[in-house]
């Protein structure tokens, strides 16, 4: 079951104060100014509820969290770790927060879903099934 609102709006998201500060600093870098990938992340951060680190639920996707998700259309399962751009390695399952799927998953809780268009033009409905927070 998805917790995505029926209004067509994206699901509510939460981000830790520490992650919000680190992502804001990343986005202030001249390298990411006027970049469409950065614009998508800015939009996600703008709608996020920022919570104190100590109050951040363990089942929310944050930076360096290991995420298990399933494509509700195909049943295909994915495991990835959400990382900063310089740490990304798709082959090792480390997905940049600036990749469309990375910014889409940021802040989601277990059970929440989000639609994501792949570079090949397919639409996936990814539902978060598990989160292992960063150590």
UniProtKB/TrEMBL annotation:
<dbReference type="InterPro" id="IPR036953">
    <property type="entry name" value="GreA/GreB_C_sf"/>
</dbReference>
<dbReference type="InterPro" id="IPR023459">
    <property type="entry name" value="Tscrpt_elong_fac_GreA/B_fam"/>
</dbReference>
<keyword id="KW-0808">Transferase</keyword>
<dbReference type="InterPro" id="IPR001437">
    <property type="entry name" value="Tscrpt_elong_fac_GreA/B_C"/>
</dbReference>
<dbReference type="Pfam" id="PF01272">
    <property type="entry name" value="GreA_GreB"/>
</dbReference>
<dbReference type="Pfam" id="PF14760">
    <property type="entry name" value="Rnk_N"/>
</dbReference>
<dbReference type="InterPro" id="IPR029462">
    <property type="entry name" value="Rnk_N"/>
</dbReference>
<keyword id="KW-0418">Kinase</keyword>
<dbReference type="GO" id="GO:0016301">
    <property type="term" value="F:kinase activity"/>
</dbReference>
<protein>
    <submittedName>
        <fullName>Nucleoside diphosphate kinase regulator</fullName>
    </submittedName>
</protein>
<feature type="domain" description="Regulator of nucleoside diphosphate kinase N-terminal">
    <location>
        <begin position="11"/>
        <end position="51"/>
    </location>
</feature>
<feature type="domain" description="Transcription elongation factor GreA/GreB C-terminal">
    <location>
        <begin position="57"/>
        <end position="132"/>
    </location>
</feature>
